């Protein structure tokens, strides 16, 4: 099915372009959300008549998204979660958790604007991309830790999952001879 795009859509095209898409994508996503019109003569003339208002509205949305991006840029959000000694979370941090953390700070971001291909399942610092507008995207840092104190230590660059942090052992001080005795008889027969 051919459609006229009413806004820029990633990997598809710019506003005003006529593109061919699969019928289901058009019927279930583009048309119901008002992102496109069916490409016929009546809609083409309608689009050309409304083009100026659509471009103005798109420019307004983009400027609003850029303002939010300027405030969010470089921010770090702390997520306190229960985790084992190795840093593996007992649960996970999903896009909705990130949206809730942003909402607590006063940012109105939709779950579909958070690009998180897989839930976060380990403690540590994670970069998450936000698509605030088709042309505006930023990365925020999600600091997942077991407590606020650990999150602060983690933000300073300290690793909480290394052998030193878990067992109180300095990894650099470990030597192979601490674990392996070269003089030991391995085959079991006495000579």
From TrEMBL:
<keyword id="KW-0175">Coiled coil</keyword>
<dbReference type="GO" id="GO:0003735">
    <property type="term" value="F:structural constituent of ribosome"/>
</dbReference>
<dbReference type="InterPro" id="IPR020594">
    <property type="entry name" value="Ribosomal_bL9_bac/chp"/>
</dbReference>
<dbReference type="InterPro" id="IPR036791">
    <property type="entry name" value="Ribosomal_bL9_C_sf"/>
</dbReference>
<protein>
    <recommendedName>
        <fullName>Large ribosomal subunit protein bL9</fullName>
    </recommendedName>
</protein>
<dbReference type="Pfam" id="PF01281">
    <property type="entry name" value="Ribosomal_L9_N"/>
</dbReference>
<dbReference type="InterPro" id="IPR020070">
    <property type="entry name" value="Ribosomal_bL9_N"/>
</dbReference>
<keyword id="KW-0694">RNA-binding</keyword>
<dbReference type="InterPro" id="IPR020069">
    <property type="entry name" value="Ribosomal_bL9_C"/>
</dbReference>
<feature type="domain" description="Ribosomal protein L9">
    <location>
        <begin position="13"/>
        <end position="40"/>
    </location>
</feature>
<comment type="similarity">
    <text>Belongs to the bacterial ribosomal protein bL9 family.</text>
</comment>
<dbReference type="InterPro" id="IPR000244">
    <property type="entry name" value="Ribosomal_bL9"/>
</dbReference>
<comment type="function">
    <text>Binds to the 23S rRNA.</text>
</comment>
<feature type="compositionally biased region" description="Acidic residues">
    <location>
        <begin position="179"/>
        <end position="191"/>
    </location>
</feature>
<keyword id="KW-0687">Ribonucleoprotein</keyword>
<dbReference type="InterPro" id="IPR009027">
    <property type="entry name" value="Ribosomal_bL9/RNase_H1_N"/>
</dbReference>
<dbReference type="Pfam" id="PF03948">
    <property type="entry name" value="Ribosomal_L9_C"/>
</dbReference>
<dbReference type="GO" id="GO:0005840">
    <property type="term" value="C:ribosome"/>
</dbReference>
<feature type="region of interest" description="Disordered">
    <location>
        <begin position="150"/>
        <end position="191"/>
    </location>
</feature>
<dbReference type="GO" id="GO:0019843">
    <property type="term" value="F:rRNA binding"/>
</dbReference>
<dbReference type="InterPro" id="IPR036935">
    <property type="entry name" value="Ribosomal_bL9_N_sf"/>
</dbReference>
<keyword id="KW-0689">Ribosomal protein</keyword>
<keyword id="KW-0699">rRNA-binding</keyword>
<dbReference type="GO" id="GO:1990904">
    <property type="term" value="C:ribonucleoprotein complex"/>
</dbReference>
<dbReference type="GO" id="GO:0006412">
    <property type="term" value="P:translation"/>
</dbReference>
<feature type="coiled-coil region">
    <location>
        <begin position="42"/>
        <end position="69"/>
    </location>
</feature>
């Amino acid at each position: 099915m051919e459609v006229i795009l009413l806004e820029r859509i990633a990997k598809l095209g710019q506003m005003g372009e006529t593109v061919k898409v699969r019928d289901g994508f058009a019927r279930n996503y583009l048309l119901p959300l008002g992102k496109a019109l069916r490409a016929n003569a009546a809609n083409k003339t309608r689009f050309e008549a409304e083009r100026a208002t659509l471009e103005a509205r798109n420019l307004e949305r983009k400027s609003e998204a850029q303002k939010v991006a300027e405030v969010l840029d470089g921010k770090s959000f702390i997520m306190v979660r229960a985790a084992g000694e190795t840093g593996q979370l007992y649960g996970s941090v999903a896009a909705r958790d990130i949206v809730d953390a942003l909402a607590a700070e006063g940012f109105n971001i939709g779950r579909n604007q958070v690009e998180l291909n897989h839930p976060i399942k380990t403690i540590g610092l994670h970069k998450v991309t936000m698509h605030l507008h088709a042309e505006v995207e930023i990365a925020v840092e999600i600091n997942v830790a077991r407590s606020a104190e650990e999150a602060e230590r983690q933000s300073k660059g300290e690793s909480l999952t290394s052998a030193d942090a878990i067992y109180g052992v300095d990894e650099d001080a470990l030597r192979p001879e601490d674990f392996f005795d070269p003089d030991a008889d391995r085959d079991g027969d006495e000579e």
